[in-house]
Design a protein that fits this description.
The chain is mainly alpha-helical. It has helices at residues 7-16, 31-37, 39-45, 64-76, 82-89, 93-104, 119-128, 139-142, 162-173, 185-191, 195-206. It has 2 domains: 31-104, Orthogonal Bundle (Cytochrome Bc1 Complex, Chain D, domain 2); 110-206, Orthogonal Bundle (Cytochrome Bc1 Complex, Chain D, domain 2), CATH 1.10.760. Helix 7 crosses helix 11. It is globular, with a radius of gyration of 16 Å. Mean pLDDT is 91; it is low at 1-22.
């Protein structure tokens, strides 16, 4: 497998990682109001936004623009989940903005790589993509340490559960998840990954810091 990262993507990824300090939120909302509204969220996502179930995402430290976009997608039907759709339907626009800002303000989870035996496959895919089938490097959008890109609504991946990441990649690949919209960027990338690629990438992402 011949891995190659274009200079443009490399520079973009380095720019995303240039600051480790969280900037002021790009979403207008109240973290205090979000905390008061977050009680039902903690049942699945944990009291500090980090889920004990590997199938439910950690949302602490996730950028607010992405969180807000996903809550809106659950509410308007662009993304479907029996639990989240029902919860999102009860939220006002202000509720969603406040929750997004609140969870963004919490410390992100720190986890180890899920399976160190898969590092030799997962790390090159994340950092360099696959030149042979034109799979883009994950680093290009999510950054070298998985911090994401709030302005572009690209999610942070660092410390996310491997099992959850694997499910999302499979859902994108199978067309179950379509919240990447008209760009289809995640569906197109995920469709090029085989089950071993997905397992290795998911394992590697969990350990990003």
């Amino acid at each position: 497998m011949n891995m190659k990262l274009t200079p443009l993507f490399a520079l973009a990824g380095l720019a995303l990682a240039s600051t480790g300090i969280q900037a002021e939120s790009l979403v207008e909302g109240s973290a205090e109001a979000g905390k008061a509204r977050a009680l039902t969220c903690t049942a699945c996502h944990g009291p500090e936004g980090n889920s004990v179930s590997p199938m439910w995402p950690n949302i602490a430290g996730q950028n607010a623009p992405y969180l807000l976009a996903q809550l809106q997608a659950f509410k308007n039907g662009n993304r479907s989940d029996p639990l989240m759709t029902g919860q999102a339907m009860m939220l006002s626009d202000d509720d969603m903005a406040n929750l997004a800002v609140y969870f963004e303000s919490l410390p992100a989870a720190v986890q180890a790589v899920a399976d160190v035996k898969l590092l030799d496959r997962g790390e090159p895919l994340y950092r360099g993509g696959n030149q042979e089938d034109k799979t883009s490097a994950c680093l290009a959008c999510h950054g070298p340490t998985g911090r994401g890109n709030p302005a572009a609504k690209y999610p942070a991946l660092q410390g996310q559960h491997a099992a959850y990441i694997a499910k999302q990649l499979n859902d994108y690949a199978n067309g179950v998840r379509t919240s990447d919209g008209k760009t289809r960027v995640m569906r197109d990338i995920a469709a090029r990954l085989d089950k071993d690629d997905i397992a290795a990438l998911s394992s590697y992402v969990q350990g990003l810091k």
